[in-house]
Amino acid sequence: MTELWTLIKYLILGLFQGFTEPIPISSSGHIVILKNLFDLEIKGLSFEILVNFGSLIAVLLIFRHDIIRLVKNGVIYITKRDEKAKGDFQFILFLIIATIPTGILGLLFEDIISETLSKPIVVGYTLLLTGAALWVIRNLRGRKNDGDIRVKDALIVGFAQAVALVPGISRSGATIVAAMLVGMKQETALRFSFLLYIPVSLGITMMSFTDIITDPNFDAMAIPYLIAFMASIVASFYALKWFINVMAKGNLKYFAFYCFIVGILVILFI
Q1: Most buried residue, 15, 22, 80, 204, by most Cβ within 10 Å?
Q2: 197: pLDDT confidence band, cut at 50, 70 and 90?
Q3: Chain centroid to CA 80: how far?
Q4: What is the distance between the alpha carbons of residues 178 and 168, in angstroms, rounded to a whole number?
Q5: What band does 22 get if pLDDT is binned at 50, 70 and 90?
Q6: Alpha helices in the chain (DSSP H)
Q7: What is the pTM of this model?
Q8: What does pLDDT average to over the chain?
Q9: C-alpha span between 57 and 234 (Å, rounded)
Q10: Is the pLDDT of residue 156 over 80?
Q11: Which one, of 32, 3, 40, 43, lies nearest residue 215 by Cα?
Q12: What gap in Å lies between CA 230 and CA 65, rounded to an integer?
């Protein structure tokens, strides 16, 4: 019975992580809250790496057509200097530029974030901050399309993603808020945010692969981790498709309300 309850806990963790990763309410913050509620101490980084990789698979599936087009046109521009492909080539460059702040700050402050800031009380306050940011941009309607993005815009969005390394600060929320504040249209902000997630998540997975192999707890926890991994793929896929429709309707204020409510509850009761 104990083993069954453990599997159920990890299933719930995988579903919550997967569902909350694409939407602007902070997956890392919800994992911190759930681990506290379930009294779970997950040692090592294997669990976080696997469930985030599950979310990455979902993002790759949904944005596969954009990815194929960008790669194809990027190669065409490099090899043939076709001006029609220049816009997609520049878009790739801006994604690379926006990835740099996260990589640098992640390496510098990883220990501080994991040891000091991964606490429920911190998550409560950072969820309030996420909610406030979403409330600020709830009615914004930018004018910038993919071809209007500049280096400064990419860096600002990149630094916003770096801030989201702190649990409770939503990655998708931070990047979409930053993208809309620099004037991007909602659909452009959404696409840039999730295509930006791909190199960051891939980089983290590749750099941390040895952590999974050398994790002394991995063999014993392989089945719970696998259940959480599969759950994160399914939950992320459907959550992202739903969020795309929400963005199209401009209903970000409801996520702000949610962050306010959960943040206050965590501060008061956890």
Answers
A1: 22
A2: very high
A3: 35
A4: 16
A5: very high
A6: 2-20, 27-38, 46-62, 64-80, 86-112, 120-136, 151-163, 171-181, 186-207, 209-214, 218-249, 253-269
A7: 0.91
A8: 89
A9: 10
A10: yes
A11: 43
A12: 23
